[in-house]
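Whiteboard transcription, Tuesday session. T.W. wrote the structure tokens on the left side:
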């Protein structure tokens, strides 16, 4: 050792090695330190004496700074192998400043006769660099974890369209392994049906493939982004699998060039459910149309015998019958008329439900319309002992555009309900011209002092076949379709129905429709002559339309009526 120190002092190595920026350490063949330059002392935080010290035992005992594991001294390895040996990764020392990561190369020194004299150790502090590497590694692990944990499939392509990375969601969706798809084109990687014969982009179906079109656009245009839905058939042997994908394409720019990010969401289950729902919808619509057609047909079939019954009862009532028989006949007639009303409501509801109900607006005389409609219910109210009032017609416009037939139907339903549920008091009809959102409207409301409606029942008031009292012991009958028909008709006229009610005090049912003035009353349509009960009346349906009259009559009933009239008049009408 003394010879080595003397040699260093005489040769001038002390001055030469002292100016080198890296740490330099010289040892003898027994690993004892002969020399440390200033850089080595700073790296190792060395302050003791050199005499008799061993480098990696006394001065800088090396440790694995990650796992604390043991390892062979690099000096021993170098002297045994007679070759330079470096430090393993994450090897360093625990100095006064904490963990110090080292990079070192131990090279054996030989004399002229070839005998081993010792080792030269070139030393560098790489703590800052290693910590940056560790931070990058941590960030990489974190980003990879996020990449893998994403439920959305993520696939990374290079500027040539080749796959360079993908996450587990893609592998699960497309049933592929990681290594088998790296470096392949998108369609080739996932065994697309179109790319089986000639490769992705060259198959007969590739020309219209949205994936291929968008990838080519992304390769050509650095600013391109895209999103689309595609159905992709993936073929594995004899198995053909349809996969529906929502695909989103974007781009990122790295040091090694542009990369294309393909994000994909497997919507196959959703598409299957949508197809099932669509099939169910079409089936339900077909069933609804069939039901509507059946209801309309049956309603017309029922009308004929009902009208025949009413007509025949009218004829019998004209004959001389006992008071008891007359009472029974009148009761039978009322029942038949109630049944007739129910059938009419069912038919109207079927028309509305199937979309066959049409609103025909034409010029109408509002004064005449209201007077004719309200006068009938005024008489009915007087018979019940109820006060009935309606507005002064002179304050209202006379000629307006509207469907008089359907408006009369709406008013009849509302007025019938008011009289039906009002046992005493009054029924008041109000008709006003209002303004909503800068446009004039015709408001018609009916206020009664009837039983009112509980608040919890209002929600179902306009539901089909729903009634305030659904019990079998209710005092007032009906189908529960009247208000539904009212609501549908008014909404078809671009208006709105409203209701205000207080239980045990009364209700107000009203509606408004857009008010459009007319210059005159349009001429009525061509009318057909039909027999209703005991008198001949005009049907408001168009004669040339081919549609059955609103009230059909059985031919045999009409013949019987005519025969009866002939008999009464001695053979002449």
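and on the right, the sequence the group agreed on:
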């Amino acid at each position: 050792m003394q010879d080595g120190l003397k040699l260093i002092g005489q040769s001038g190595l002390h001055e030469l090695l002292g100016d080198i920026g890296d740490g330099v350490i010289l040892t003898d063949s027994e690993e004892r330190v002969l020399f440390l330059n200033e850089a080595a002392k700073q790296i190792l935080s060395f302050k003791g004496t050199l005499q008799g010290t061993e480098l990696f035992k006394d001065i800088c005992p090396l440790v694995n700074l990650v796992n604390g594991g043991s390892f062979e001294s690099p000096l021993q390895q170098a002297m045994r192998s007679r070759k330079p040996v470096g430090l393993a990764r994450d090897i360093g020392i625990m100095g006064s400043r904490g963990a110090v990561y080292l990079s070192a190369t131990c090279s054996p020194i030989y004399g002229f006769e070839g005998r081993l004299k010792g080792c030269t150790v070139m030393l560098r502090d790489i703590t800052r660099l290693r910590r940056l590497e560790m931070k990058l590694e941590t960030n990489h692990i974190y980003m990879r974890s996020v990449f893998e944990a994403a439920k959305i499939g993520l696939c990374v392509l290079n500027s040539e369209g080749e796959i360079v990375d993908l996450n587990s969601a893609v592998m699960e969706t497309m049933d592929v392994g990681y290594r088998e798809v790296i470096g392949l084109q998108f369609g080739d990687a996932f065994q697309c049906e179109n790319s089986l014969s000639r490769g992705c982009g060259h198959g007969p179906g590739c020309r219209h493939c949205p994936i291929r079109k968008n990838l080519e656009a992304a390769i050509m245009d650095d600013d391109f982004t895209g999103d689309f839905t595609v159905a992709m058939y993936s073929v594995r042997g004899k198995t053909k699998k349809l996969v529906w994908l929502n695909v989103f394409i974007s781009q990122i720019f790295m040091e090694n060039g542009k990369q294309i990010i393909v994000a994909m969401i497997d919507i196959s289950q959703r598409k299957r459910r949508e197809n099932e729902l669509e099939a169910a919808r079409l089936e339900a619509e077909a069933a609804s149309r069939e039901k509507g057609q059946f209801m309309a047909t049956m309603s017309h079939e029922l009308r004929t015998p009902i009208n025949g019954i009413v007509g025949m009862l009218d004829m019998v009532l004209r004959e001389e019958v006992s008071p008891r028989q007359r009472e029974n006949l009148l009761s039978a007639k009322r029942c038949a008329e109630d049944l007739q009303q129910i059938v009419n409501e069912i038919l109207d509801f079927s028309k509305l439900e199937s979309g066959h109900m049409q609103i025909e607006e034409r010029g109408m005389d509002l004064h005449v319309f209201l007077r004719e409609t309200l006068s009938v219910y005024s008489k009915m109210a007087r018979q019940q002992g109820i006060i009935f009032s309606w507005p002064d017609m002179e304050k209202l416009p006379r000629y307006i555009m509207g469907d008089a037939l359907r408006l009369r139907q709406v008013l009849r339903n509302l007025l019938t309900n008011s009289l039906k549920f009002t046992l005493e008091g009054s029924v008041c009809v109000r008709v006003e011209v209002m303004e909503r959102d800068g446009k004039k409207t015709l408001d018609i409301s009916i206020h009664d002092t009837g039983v009112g409606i509980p608040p919890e029942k209002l929600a179902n008031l306009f539901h089909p076949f729903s009634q305030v009292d659904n019990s079998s012991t209710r005092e007032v009958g009906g189908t529960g379709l009247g208000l539904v028909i009212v609501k549908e008709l008014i909404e078809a006229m671009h208006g709105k129905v409203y209701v205000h009610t207080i239980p045990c005090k009364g209700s107000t049912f009203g509606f408004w429709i857009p008010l459009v003035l007319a210059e005159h009353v349009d001429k009525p349509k061509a009318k057909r002559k039909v027999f209703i009960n005991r008198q001949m009346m005009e049907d408001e349906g168009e004669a040339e339309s081919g549609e059955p009259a609103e009230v059909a009559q059985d031919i045999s009933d009409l013949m019987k009526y005519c025969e009866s009239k002939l008999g009464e008049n001695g053979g002449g009408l």
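Someone added at the bottom: The chain has three domains: 2-129, 150-266, 358-523.
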